[in-house]
Amino acid sequence: MLEPLDRAIINRLQGEFPLCEEPYAQVAEELGTSEAELIARLQRLLDDKILSRFGPMYHAERLGGGLTLAALAVPEERFEAVAAQVNAFAEVAHNYQRDHHLNMWFVLATETPQRINEVIGEIERLTGLTVFNMPKEQEFYIGLRFDA
Amino acid sequence: MNSAATPTQQTNSPIDEIDRALIQMTQHGLPLTPRPYHTLAEWLGIESGEVVRRIERMVADGIIRRIGAVPNHYALGYRGNGMSVWNVPAEKIGELGPRIGALDFVSHCYQRPRRLPDWPYNLFAMVHGRDRAEVADKVAQIARLLGADDHGHEVLFSTRILKKTGLRLGI
């Protein structure tokens, strides 16, 4: 169970993190706790997987890489086998099963933009299925923020 | 001081070798040490002021969106996570997209290509709620906002995470 201070930490750390000499001390002071307590709780939230990560969030395309969302309509009896084939690619960052005719949705993040089409080609060849490639054309908002 | 770092082999790369090393060191997280930028500077063999300047520059260039925590929304009780997808007139998407993105329960909002005839949807909005009913209620709010511009929509709920490694920048 999360204590009030854990919730305050999660909410605070979804905002800006200072770029000063002792940033944890500064945030701890804002939250009315100590630097050691903040670091210990942050470590525990990460260990318990309440937080997926804490650190700089990089924008893959701005680094010169490729990023896309792609989907497959996988026959139910082949679902596990195809999931293993798709997940075997290091470029597959996320993969979700969804309740739809297009039942497998994955994010490809590649070192170069050209590599996106290569990986899609390899997945199509391996699985014999058509990959629906849906790269973003415009971003209207991205601001994942959850009240803890 | 390595301020004259050589450009990387990748053409048009907006980062140099030191940035690259800094990214590799931090893509799993920021060190949980009292002086994290100093810790990174020691690993890199540069001054901590330079680490901060490099991070500031990457924030200004949009390479770093922000430094922060990414909660596991399931663990926080957000069990309804629906990908709502909408067929809206292409010529109005520039006006409609920002209005949907501005809703406080939408975490990501993108225009993506239609894949006809199988996939008529060109606007994606991730909607989060405590459960599916709450997500359905929020999707109805989007539908009201779109009115006659909603030419069809669906909500795809994730039933299983098959892989979630996050972005591993192979750099």
The CATH class of the largest domain in chain A is identified as Alpha Beta
What is the helix tally of chain A? 5
Low-confidence stretches of chain B: 1-11
> How confident overall, as mean pLDDT of chain B?
88
Question: How are the strands of the largest sheet of chain B arranged?
Answer: 3-4-2-5
For the sheet with most strands of chain A, the description reads: 4 strands, antiparallel
CATH fold category name of the largest domain in chain A: Alpha-Beta Plaits
What would CATH call the class of the largest domain in chain B? Alpha Beta
Proportion of residues in β-strands of chain B: 15-25%
> What helical percentage do the residues of chain B reach?
25-40%
Q: Helix- and strand-based class of chain A? A: alpha+beta
According to CATH, what is the topology of the largest domain in chain B? Alpha-Beta Plaits
Tell me, briefly, the overall form of chain A.
elongated
Major β-sheet strand ordering of chain A:
3-4-2-5
N-to-C order of helices and strands of chain A: HHHEEHEEHEE
The coarse silhouette of chain B is elongated
Separate helix tally of chain B: 5
